[in-house]
Amino acid sequence: MWREIGSMRKIILIIIALTNLFIAFAQNSTFVNPFIGTKSMGHVFPGAVAPHGVIALSPDTDTIPHNVAGKYQPDVYRYCAGYQYNDPTIVGFSHTHFSGTGHSDLGDLLLMPTNGKRLLNPGTKEQPETGYRARFSHNQEKAMPGYYAVTLQDYHIDVELTATERVGVHRYHYPDQNARIIFDLVHGIYNYDDKTLWASVRVENPQLITGYRITNGWARENYQYFAIAFSQPVLNYGYEEYEKQSYAGGWRKFNLKENFPEMAGRKIRCYFEFELPETHVLEARLAFSAVSAEGALKNLEVEAPLHKSFDEILKETQQKWEKELSFIEATGNPDQLAMLYTSLYHCKINPSIYQDVDGKYRGLDGNIHEAKDFTNYTVFSLWDTYRALHPLMNIMDRKRSADFTNSMLAHRAQSVHKILPMWSHFANENWCMIGYHGVSVLADAIAKNIPIDRKEAMSAMYSSSTLPYFDKTAEYLKYGFVPYDVSKNGVSITLEYAYDDWCIYQTALKEGDTQKAEEYKKRALNYRNVFCPDLGFARARYSNGFWKEDFSLLNTHDEGFIEGNSWNYSFYVPHDVLGLMKLMGGDKAFIAKLDNLFNMHLPDEFFAETEDVTREGLLGGYVHGNEPSHHIIYMYNFTSEPWKAQYWVREVMNRMYRNDLDGLCGNDDCGQMSAWYIFSAMGFYPLCPGSDQLVLAAPYLPYLKLNLPNGNTFEIKAPKVSDKNRYVQSVKLNGKPYTKAFITNDNVITGGMLEFEMGEKPNRKRVFKGDDLPYSQ
Amino acid sequence: MWREIGSMRKIILIIIALTNLFIAFAQNSTFVNPFIGTKSMGHVFPGAVAPHGVIALSPDTDTIPHNVAGKYQPDVYRYCAGYQYNDPTIVGFSHTHFSGTGHSDLGDLLLMPTNGKRLLNPGTKEQPETGYRARFSHNQEKAMPGYYAVTLQDYHIDVELTATERVGVHRYHYPDQNARIIFDLVHGIYNYDDKTLWASVRVENPQLITGYRITNGWARENYQYFAIAFSQPVLNYGYEEYEKQSYAGGWRKFNLKENFPEMAGRKIRCYFEFELPETHVLEARLAFSAVSAEGALKNLEVEAPLHKSFDEILKETQQKWEKELSFIEATGNPDQLAMLYTSLYHCKINPSIYQDVDGKYRGLDGNIHEAKDFTNYTVFSLWDTYRALHPLMNIMDRKRSADFTNSMLAHRAQSVHKILPMWSHFANENWCMIGYHGVSVLADAIAKNIPIDRKEAMSAMYSSSTLPYFDKTAEYLKYGFVPYDVSKNGVSITLEYAYDDWCIYQTALKEGDTQKAEEYKKRALNYRNVFCPDLGFARARYSNGFWKEDFSLLNTHDEGFIEGNSWNYSFYVPHDVLGLMKLMGGDKAFIAKLDNLFNMHLPDEFFAETEDVTREGLLGGYVHGNEPSHHIIYMYNFTSEPWKAQYWVREVMNRMYRNDLDGLCGNDDCGQMSAWYIFSAMGFYPLCPGSDQLVLAAPYLPYLKLNLPNGNTFEIKAPKVSDKNRYVQSVKLNGKPYTKAFITNDNVITGGMLEFEMGEKPNRKRVFKGDDLPYSQ
Q: Within 10 Å of residue B13's Cβ, how many Cβ atoms?
């Protein structure tokens, strides 16, 4: 008897111990709030996704743009991620979403559980009852990493979603045994009703359907093969076509619309009806492949076969998230931790895995390739992510970082232009934004000893920076800048090319190609050709050398820039800050100009032209809600007043990253905005990717520990830090006083401790000179 | 000196000997006249094709149907093969064509050489100068197996074409150094301007382009990947899009329309411009693949790399044709030999090889498969070709016959319905016509010991004949016939199902599945359920057992039949002729009915409703220009007046197969009409495929020798045969008197000699009884 009680006690103790372990282990993901940024400009989605999974299974709340006089209204922009918090209805749950982009696409393969009257059109948010969409309330909605749940009020259906890398897993609780699933192959984000080029569905057996659709959206040609397993046999199914298509012969022999196991067309919406067992639960699992239905089926069988329960899959995905989120341990208040871990979460969504479980993937050349020594990824928003996301990966996820660069090299090998990706997704190049920043990502990886084929990387850098017809490269090389008469974005392009050229210069130097090093060293100074000495700012210039007249420093449009005005873009010389400072009139003038940027008021007429940001995304004239200025604050380190970086970084973190629905001041841009936050929370930032230096400001939290993938840890302590004590008095690295303005990537990954003594007032003696300054050409 | 002259003589003699050998070897293809049937109903094409090659590179003379009130006029029918002899212009040279079909599709990947003004639209035949098409004259046109040449008068360009199995090879002679090629990705046969779902072109280098298009034509989803090699570098290229498509981003950075190496859209037409060397010759080679651009490139490299000359390729293809055409040696007048060898030529075009050189092919399930133990073929017009083409293949090309059946079994394995093909092409089932005649092809192959997986074949036969939703199979099984109230084609369907069921019965018997044999033996008699005893004809019947009132024996439409009236279809019991004879009232009544069929006059109002035939395609009421009656003449063998078969077969051959542009009296139907001719010329015909018997009539020519693939020969002698001496007096097989009405397939392939003594009058004593009668249930 005692013995039994003894064993029982033991069991209970073990259970308690395990539970504690689980809580300890589980706690980071509990801080994540996927709803941050789902309102307004964040463009993130609350749905279920596994770390870097291609499946991002999330509700689309309204994706139908209003067609006014043949033109789409900008609603298409609002729905980059398919979800806007204020919307009253859910159209359905589609399987692919960008995280935080400023351009929309995807929203593929929408499933929607319904019951009652069979409606195959989505209806409108004003009159949801005219279609299959349903009302919902945020009171009946829940999201956490790898899990999303909501109640569809019109149907009394409780929806739960989870995801593996390649499979979206749905669990629907119906009010009774009558169940229907709508499978809408017209639905998509970007262009609403003419996106699908072709869709095809096969009912292989009552519990398995396969098929594909090809879309022409932002991705020019996007192939989405699928295999869907139902936990119950379908009793009755069919479709409606919303545009005539031919399937000659068949119509005479069959009723193609009902229970005919082949359904195809340009615009089809299918339904599947079930009679449920007493549980009233129906599960659906949609596996994605860009290769083939066969590939989708393999993905389904490996990742989410029906014999594996929803809860098991959910648990595995949650464990993957815990592992990812365990990279950082931190102390802070709940809002700070929510912001920190949500940022980390946002950094682990894109790029997305883009290959089947057997390694096959669709290449940029349209051929099916097999990834042999790497895992292929897609969704490279490089104009955004070269800045901080990829440098962050070079610390926290070096294996994936190698995969990313290898994926970019594969893209380049498959490109008919033989150049690196610019903004690539789903085996497409969409040519978004400017620069050839793929070279920055490669240079940063090489600078930080990520194992990649350097010869191949060098070759890719050269070809990407010398393709004459690529976005005015010929003119850039001819004039040393991109003239305004050649491109309305000429100044921005010139500045960014010059930085990219510096990256190539650095890599050539490192790899011993002195001739190229010399060539690109010169090219890196091209930024000077668009700097107007009289004005003291970067300025649009004509090919005859004349500067643009009637030039506005504040205007974002038509002044030679893109997504930034001259005030912000003039600071875009991350690779030669001292050179820029000199051009701007030296230390004092440079400080004055920086101060002015942060303290000025941007009149409404000019704000209206800034892109992708809310009013909160501005600090004076400094635009944080978009990328071109992300490095600017850290430039104070080169001046005699470096503490101003410490001030403004904290100001940005407090004001522009809030644990709130509209807590993101601009598009998260596939993790770039979040990566800025994480770096800045650590107290340093990659001001100039391509160098191995991380430029200091001040930590945001009193304690932060990085659990590095090599097993080392790097601790960042700033016990006294607070909004009041935001100034660095002194720094110790591994216990020793540290006087430089930067640490290196190696400092971090070899592990150690970085300690900041914080105070209320700036330490005006802590000014960096000579070797203590960050590297600058 | 003498010695030298001696060697010279020797060389000359060798040359003469080789030349003679070549002439001897080459002579059969010189008889082929690819223009036979290119006018009116034959629906064959004159262009270049290798035996059973997927590339059928041929001029399209006008494929633009006239859209009247939103409906296409039947021009689409006229252009099944893209070419109509009377047309004044050539639109261009497209790479895929059906041979002789009654339904149109293909016409893919059109190239057209031009010069002068750059016109990217095809123009009209009335005003060719408004587009890129050109006038031509038959005086400047030439066609032979594997070769086609024409002069484009508007451009003074001489065009020569040849083809390998997977590559179309073009040689253009321009009048000067200015050359252009139009590549029209909108063009296609079937639906003119909305066929292409998507097209994509990559200029890999100045001499190589790759890409693909997907079409939705008669084939629901047809993938055409290509690789095109030019013999000269392209200097300038571009495209026009005829429907807006999005390629976001790109338009801001590039001039996508000119010299940008990616061209894509729903409706695009490209041009490529060259500066030629002094020869003024430009070659283009287009390799096709249904798998990938990579596959097309492999096909190009293996079959027609640029280092292989046009003439070498042409010679190889011509040698392949000689080999195929050497199957028959015959004596006859030039017109007879032209008809014979052209018929043989038409039998060796479809089915078409449908896999890349590495064995990969697109399956019916949309997945990419690899053909391991067979070669995959497509274009199975089985309602037509089960009758004579496949039985002919079981004599002359047993290797390909095995490939055909294996291709059909692969189709079935990939079918979501798990049934054999009906009318399949390019990885699609188009459900054309009726019956599950795939089972006939399998049964015939098994009866004739073609090596195939019999277990798999049996399983395929069963599944194909029991799928409830397949074209009224459920009702057929329920009522024993397909009621008129269920299908307007119910009688035809019933008759053909019953025959197919007999094929299954025979196979089950052969394979020892007695239970199935019993079941299908019964089903084979279902033809009786639509035979109206009062009327003495097959008649539409309702599910309540009542016969259709107001029934017309002559009308083709709405009487229960399809592509044939009751007069013709009533004889459709190839598997139980004696049974049918009994139903029709015995020998004399049966003969009277047959005689009546051949001697009646079909009034114009009823002729207008026959399909796919010219007036010449009729003999009285007998319709030879379409398939349902092809076996009827041979039925006389079961009667007391078998010589009438000898009379009418020769009558049909003389009247309905003429060495003339409109020499085919109906669609050639992928070789079925031609196979009928070849069998009938031999003196026998597969009255009932699925049995191994070939039913005799009389040979058409005095001498005919079959060079069998196993090395044996089978000679058919009828030295006295002529239109006058059309009656068989007696027969000898291998020197011995032969009294049966049939020989077996084995008789032929083991080799030997069949001799016919011919005379002016019928030998009225030569009547078949008992074992001398062909097999009949």
A: 10
Taking only residues 97 to 126 of chain A, the set having a beta carbon closer than 8 angstroms to any beta carbon of chain B reads: 103
Q: Are B330 and B703 in contact (CB under 8 A)?
A: yes
Over 70: is that where the pLDDT of A232 sits? Answer: yes
Whether B264 and chain A come into contact, CB under 8 Å, resolves to yes
Query: How far apart are the C-alpha atoms of B55 and B357, rounded to whole Å?
Result: 14
Residues 507-526 of chain B with CB under 8 A from chain A are none
Structure ipTM over 0.90, yes or no: yes
Stretch 434-473 of chain B: residues touching chain A, C-beta under 8 Å: 469-472
**Probe site for chain B from A106, A193, A291, A367 (most B CB atoms < 10 A):** A367
**Token pair listed for B619:** 């003999």
- Is B775 a residue whose pLDDT tops 90? no
Residues B86, B90, B96: CA angle, nearest 5 degrees: 105
- CA distance to A480, A643, A646, per residue, from A651 (Å): 37, 13, 9
| Residue length of chain A | 777
Over the Cα atoms of chain A, what is R_g? 27
Confidence (pLDDT) at B2: 47
Tens of pLDDT, residue by residue over B286-310, are 999 999 999 999 999 999 999 999 9
> Could you give the CA distance from residue A338 to residue A319 in angstroms, rounded to a whole number?
18
Q: State the residue for tokens 């009294």.
A: B739
**From its phi and psi, is residue A716 left (phi > 0), alpha (psi between -120 and 50) or beta?**
beta
* pLDDT for B394: 98
Q: Is B626 helix (H, G, I), strand (E, B) or coil?
A: coil
- C-alpha torsion A619→A621→A622→A627, nearest 10: 120
The pair of three-digit structure tokens given for residue B526, joined into one six-digit string = 């279902």
Contact A366 B212 (CB under 8 A): yes
DSSP result, A196-246: EEEEEEEEEETTEEEEEEEE-SSSSSEEEEEEEEESS---EEEEEESS---
Cβ-defined contact of B202 to A470 (cutoff 8 Å): no
At A538 the three-state DSSP class reads strand
Residues A575, A569: Cα–Cα separation, whole Å: 14
Q: Which tens digit of pLDDT belongs to each residue from B652-683? A: 999 999 999 999 989 999 999 999 999 999 99
B415 at interface of A, judged by CB pairs closer than 8 A? no
pLDDT of residue B40: 85
**Confidence at residue B777, expressed as pLDDT on a 0 to 100 scale:** 43
Give CA–CA dist B343/A429, Å, rounded.
51
CA angle A452, A458, A461 (to 5 degrees): 115
Q: What is the mean predicted confidence (pLDDT) over A263-277?
A: 96
Quick: pLDDT tens for B513-527.
999 999 999 999 999
A11-25 core/surface letters (b: 16 or more CB in 10 A; e: else): eeeeeeeeeeeeeee
Task: Give the number of other Cβ atoms within 10 Å of residue B114's Cβ.
Answer: 26
The answer to whether residue A87 scores a pLDDT higher than 90 is yes
CA–CA min distance B665, chain A (Å): 25
Please indicate, yes or no, whether the overall pTM of this predicted structure exceeds 0.90: yes
Distance CA A16, CA A28 (A): 20
Tokens of residue B540, six digits: 């539409």
Biggest alpha carbon–alpha carbon distance for chain A: 99
What is the rounded CA–CA span in Å between residue B335 and residue B361? 40
Residue B242 reports pLDDT greater than 80: no
Q: Is the dihedral of CA B463, B464, B465, B469 positive or negative?
A: positive
- What single DSSP character describes residue B258? B
Distance CA B102, CA B104 (A): 7
Radius of gyration of chain B (CA): 27
Question: What are the tens digits of pLDDT across the range B713-727?
Answer: 999 999 999 999 999
